[in-house]
Amino acid sequence: MKTTKRIYWTATVILFLLEGLMPALTSHTQLAIEGIQHLGYPDYFRVMLTVFKVAGALALVLPFVKGNVKEWAYAGFGFTLISACVSHWAVDGFTGQTIFPLVVFAILVVSYKSYHKLMAFAKQDASTQEKESSTAQPNELIVSGASR
Questions:
Q1: Which pLDDT does position 132 carry in this prediction?
Q2: What per-residue string of b and e applies to 29-49 under the rule 16 or more CB within 10 Å gives b?
């Protein structure tokens, strides 16, 4: 379980840095503006994409965010990374800019798979604790009833 946690946090922090922090710090630069225009997208798309990326990155990295919110964040990143690959390929042909979103997508898959492994471990631990507590309570009742 420790290895799974390390893998999860390493992949998730890399995603947070690449898909959350970097867009937040660089989306307003001239290079980012020209990049979005080069792909044929309007400027409001750049702003909207940055807001969603930062929100999704926070959803992935904050441990109290669970369930559907985290699932939607993973799905959203999957859609944007595949779309980025397709957009770069359609406009520029098959280049390094086409491959990079697929590399980040692979990191996303590692984070997603390890997140689900951790959730399975947590569910298994909870059911084990529940079984232990349910078997311990009747014995305690018998002992406490006998002592009165």
A1: 66
A2: eeebeebbeebeeeeeebeeb
